């Protein structure tokens, strides 16, 4: 679906152009059963997560995607804002998994692993995962994931998986204070990346893993955690984790079945941290 008056007839003019408009054409090349069967494209939007919530509350189907060239009010974790200039992949997947709400955090881990693997496969860059949900290259953030859950006691209404990937973006498009912490695929490769090919691979792989997970959630969790561990750059490090109830300093020893980070403190205490910001004490 093409919005904002951008015509599909322009397809041939843009086919080799990694820049604008191509994102609207993803649906045409996708080989998926549920993901992006409904796809809403915007050249500019406030936030794909915000729009996704609106339409999910009005019954949007499982697998619906909202994708935008730019966001004016992109949202990050912990109420932060998310810079979303043209050239990135800013999208939200609406999911309606028939799983227990307690298993929803696994979807964030699954998404992070799929993104890291897609980067590795399409670019050969060694993308790694930083708890809870950053994808990094050479110790700099290339992608963030914002998962939002709407659930009742035992039932999930919907899960919004919002992901922001810095693809074809010059680092000087980011505010000065972020420039030493972030990177983009273009920055790392010194060339641009075809966002259609990348997004196709990403969404097809996401669907494969998502459907496997849905078939047998409890049995699939150990394999999802194992993959996350293999891709992680957090485990085995000394960290400070800033949580709502204070800072925890210790050794990041493992990740639990619900996605919580296990941190061992100097005094031998074991903390299971559900949410927080993780800072590495040494690189
Ligand atoms: C983070 O803080 O690391 C999470 C960032 C998530 C950004 C993405 S971009 C697409 C989607 N829409 C939003 O407003 N946020 C997410």
Contiguous runs where pLDDT drops below 50 for at least 5 residues:
1-21
For the termini, the CA-CA separation is 44 Å
Compute the average pLDDT.
91
How many helices? 7
Q: What is the strand arrangement across the widest sheet? A: 1-2-3-7-6-5-4
Q: How is the biggest beta sheet arranged?
A: 7 strands, mixed
Shape: globular
Query: How do the helices and strands follow one another from N- to C-terminus?
Result: HHEHEEHEEEEHHHEEEEE
Percentage of residues in helical conformation? 25-40%
State which percent range the strand residues make up: 25-35%
Unique bound compounds: biotin
Summarize the structure.
The chain is α+β, with helices and mostly antiparallel strands. It has helices at 11-14, 26-29, 48-57, 105-123, 185-189, 195-215, 217-231, and strands at 39-45, 65-71, 89-95, 127-130, 134-137, 140-151, 156-165, 238-243, 246-255, 261-264, 270-273, 277-280.
Structure description:
The protein is α+β, with helices and mostly antiparallel strands and 283 residues long. The chain has helices at residues 11-14, 26-29, 48-57, 105-123, 185-189, 195-215, 217-231, and strands spanning 39-45, 65-71, 89-95, 127-130, 134-137, 140-151, 156-165, 238-243, 246-255, 261-264, 270-273, 277-280. The strands form two sheets. Strands 1-2-3-7-6-5-4 form a seven-stranded mixed sheet, with helices on both faces. Strand 4 and strand 5 (134-137) form a beta hairpin. Helix 4 (105-123) runs antiparallel to helix 6 (195-215), helix 4 (105-123) packs across helix 7 and helix 6 packs across helix 7 (217-231). It starts with 10 loop residues before the first helix and ends with a strand. Biotin binds at residues 47-49, 71, 74-77, 80, 82, 84, 90-92, 134, 144-146, 162-164. Biotin is lined by residues 47-49, 71, 74-77, 80, 82, 84, 90-92, 134, 144-146, 162-164.
